[in-house]
């Protein structure tokens, strides 16, 4: 066999090998699509959180408070963080009145890097290693971009985005060391669709999605697919917590109904216990956003106009 024949054989072999890999890839993609469809009918079994140490930021009120109560009722040790020491202690005391003593409260401004690391060390010494981190703290200023002050812009980015890096830096290393843990981050429907009066808030929630997806993929790659740390991003419609002071404008209110904090917290805990990577509440918003990405821009504008959706800007 001369060199030309050898070259042809090698090229043919490489082509056949590539075709085999593509076929295997297609089969795997089809399998996981079928698995997802099956899970719509038969959801993944909930895992236990009893004995886990759950740290919740923004635990002093609203969703954070209900998350703390929910995890405590499931047998987890709960660590409450909030910038408001008084309301944070109220959450802790409410849980203790339930007969659950494994609850701790720490004042912490999650936008302050040094404070996050300092309080995190205190938690490790006094409580133990956090195994479930829930980045819930957030703020919102819904107004036109030209009316946003520079301080408001910085505050939204610091709390809604940068704080995620500080808490991940503080608690993720130990999860990696033990190959055990779960990170939950609260995004928003505003993190799936940009909108008027959301020029600052919407990008901060888009960023949460990117942080979580990137971190999950990074750990999967570094561990050669053996990472057992889970990441769950939750996209909520507007929750009645006092963050949004005015009513949402929409032609069909049922599509964007305001959730009660307890309802939202229950769905978040359910998503975490089932190891969902992404979960929108209500559930139809996530697939709708994926469909919307494939529509022409003008078509999306027509849908927005038809739905008459808008945020209550100032």
Number of strands: 7
CATH superfamily: NAD(P)-binding Rossmann-like Domain
Shape: globular
Q: Under the CATH scheme, which class?
A: Alpha Beta
What oligomeric state is this? Answer: single chain
**Overall tally of domains:** 1
Given helix and strand content, the structural type is alpha/beta
Straight-line distance between termini:
80 Å
Strands of the widest sheet, in order across it, are 3-2-1-4-5-6-7
Bin the helical content: 40-55%
User: Roughly what fraction of the amino acids lie in strands?
Assistant: 5-15%
N-to-C SSE series? Answer: HEHEHEHEHEHEHEHH
Number of helices: 9
Specify the CATH architecture: 3-Layer(aba) Sandwich
- Low-confidence residue ranges: none
What's the arrangement of secondary structure elements?
Blueprint: H1 3-41, E1 53-57, H2 62-73, E2 77-82, H3 85-97, E3 103-107, H4 113-126, E4 132-135, H5 150-178, E5 181-188, H6 201-222, E6 229-236, H7 261-273, E7 278-281, H8 285-292, H9 297-307
Parallel strand pairs: 1-2, 1-4, 2-3, 4-5, 5-6, 6-7
Helix pairs in contact: 2-3, 2-7, 4-5, 5-6
Protein name: Short-chain dehydrogenase/reductase 3
Family: Belongs to the short-chain dehydrogenases/reductases (SDR) family.
GO molecular function: all-trans-retinol dehydrogenase (NADP+) activity
